[in-house]
Fold this protein.
Amino acid sequence: MKPDIKSYTLDELKNIMTDELGEKPFRAAQIYRWLHVALCTSFDEMTNISAGLREKLKEHFELSVLVKEQLQVSKIDGTAKYLFKLGDGNRIESVLMKYKHGNSVCISSQAGCRMGCKFCASTLDGLARNLLPGEMLDQIYRIQADTGERVDNIVIMGCGEPLDNFDNVTKFLKMISDENGLNISQRNITVSTCGLVPKIRELAELNLQITLAISLHAPNDDIRKNIMPVANKYSIEELLSACDYYFMKTGRRITFEYSLINGVNDSLKEARELAERIKHINSHVNLIPINPIKERSFRQGTQEEISEFKKLLEKNKINVTIRREMGRDIQGACGQLRKSYSEQETRTNDEKEEEIF
């Protein structure tokens, strides 16, 4: 399989132009602009380079372009959920959310996920593969092309565990914030992780100015182990120590994601324990009323219970907000649309086989 040209940095392209294709290095900047500013979908669109060079590019590279297979738009809040098909037939999800401060896109970093968190639909079928930087970039590019509007903020919180695809994700971060591309500020990018402690420390060493979001979802190891298998490998103490290190290296405040699951982690006792755990960390808590998925029995508490949890954290001087629920009527939780599409495809294939036999 030919390499994806969209996954190369500008410097890498310059080396390829001179060392492999025998071209002048300035050609790399022209090609890079077509890929990452003009958002072209074929080599033939690159009209300011010669036909001969375009043929060389076709011979040596693939140009990853995602195919929009489905689009669901919420009638409640306008959230748009995209189901994209990759070149090898795998599918991923991306979500466009419109706010007063601009357009945010939540992208996937893997096709599937192997982390096994019990409240997440992304992990139900396991991990198919990691996404390349170009495939992560193209989620944003296709949504911009589809809407005709610029993306202002990026959240890597869709299908997959970003730090389980560390090299490709960090390369994506540098490319999406490159002044030669879309030049989206790193301060407008959030990377979410379930808590791969060594990778958090490795990320800290890069000194990026992104926001790190930790999927915490529990105040102690017992509850966390019950809903997040990663907790069997890394304790909360180890995780919070890595958060301290990340803040020390980058100066960036940590976000703690906390999905409120009725009867599991949403009592006032757990709120007090959570406050005690994180009070020393420069952080913000994002409370998330759980978005139910049909494969699990988890449910939301009442609005009053959610509000009381928040008030207790605030009483303990914890910065906290309740995430606005978006896209509930369009299978808004991670992996739901991908999972339902896969199930429908399986049913259709089964029906075809029944007709044959």
Summary: The first strand starts at residue 67 and ends at 73. The two ends are 36 Å apart (CA to CA). The longest helix spans residues 336-356.
